[in-house]
Design goal:
With 77 residues, the protein is α+β, with helices and mostly antiparallel strands. It is 23% helix and 8% strand. It contains 2 helices and 2 strands. It has a two-stranded parallel sheet. The protein is globular and about 45 Å long.
Length: 77
């Protein structure tokens, strides 16, 4: 029988926690099929800075933005 735990056990990321925050640099607002299953309840940030120019300050700003969000994990208000 196919269920969530069986599917998760066959992923390359098995045993790892799901993604909480995905930062996609360069301003691209797409995932390109990257970790689709693991990002189901992730928060997304799309800074316009390119990856080689992404600094610790940019990372800190991303974490601050993430920290200010209300995570609902798919639940409606």
């Amino acid at each position: 029988m196919i269920n969530e735990s069986m599917l998760a056990s066959h992923l390359y990321t098995r045993g790892l926690p799901d993604v909480d925050l995905l930062i996609r640099t360069s301003g691209e607002m797409r995932l390109s099929n990257f970790l689709l299953y693991q990002c189901a309840y992730a928060e997304f940030l799309f800074p316009s800075v390119l990856w080689p120019d992404f600094t610790v300050a940019d990372y800190d700003a991303a974490l601050m933005a993430y920290g200010g969000r209300e995570r609902r994990f798919g639940k409606r208000l």
